[in-house]
Write a structure and sequence with these properties.
Structural class: mainly beta
Strand content: 35-45%
Radius of gyration: 17 Å
Oligomer: single chain
Helix content: under 10%
Shape: globular
Number of strands: 13
Largest sheet: 4 strands, antiparallel
């Protein structure tokens, strides 16, 4: 950033290519009127690994950040270090925490999923609730997970009127136990 230079990395690689699938939002097929490439993107707590995927991708990819910081490294070398980490939800946003967990939005099921990366790649539904209508943004601050809910499917199909309120949900991540289950909200 300090150099004001930019360059493309993994351009046209399968891991950044939009996928053409028909998602289902709460059991109803939803024809998205656009294609989305990488939309879910986050650094691990150390800053050494970047996790990323297109919205409709069913896998979450990783690549070491040291490889994408250097414009002199060849595309082939970066591609050789892309790792398909494991399954993920259809998601708009992801975030990592200091315990190596990855939290993902899941607009198909009005839920938040969690991936435990320290042992095995274990994808699990953390919380599902109708208030999580098209969870869109996700972040962590002061021990809480914040999720913005857009009800985006209604905004395109209909209009905003009648689908409000649009919530910001706060989840205490300290209340998530060792089995990645919320003990209390």
């Amino acid at each position: 950033i300090h150099t004001w230079k930019s360059w493309r990395v993994l351009d046209r690689h399968e891991s950044v290519t939009p996928k053409s699938i028909l998602p289902s939002v709460n059991g109803r097929p939803y024809d998205m009127p656009w294609e989305t490439g990488v939309n879910s993107i986050a650094l691990d707590e150390t800053g050494y690994i970047i996790y990323y995927a297109s919205t409709l991708e069913d896998k979450l990819f990783t690549v070491p950040t040291k490889l994408i910081r250097k414009p002199s490294i060849s595309t082939e070398e970066v591609e050789a270090h892309v790792f398909a980490g494991g399954p993920k939800t259809v998601s708009e946003s992801i975030v990592t925490d200091k315990y190596g967990r990855i939290f993902l939005t899941d607009f198909e099921h009005s839920s938040i999923a969690i991936i435990e990366t320290n042992n095995a790649w274990n994808l699990k539904n953390l919380i599902q609730d109708e208030i999580l209508r098209w969870p869109y943004g996700i972040s962590i601050a002061n021990g809480y997970l914040y999720v913005t809910c857009s009800a985006f499917n209604h905004l395109i199909d209909d209009n905003v009127t009648g689908h409000e309120p649009f919530h910001i949900v706060k989840i205490n991540i300290q209340a998530i136990d060792s089995t990645n289950t919320i003990k209390e909200l």
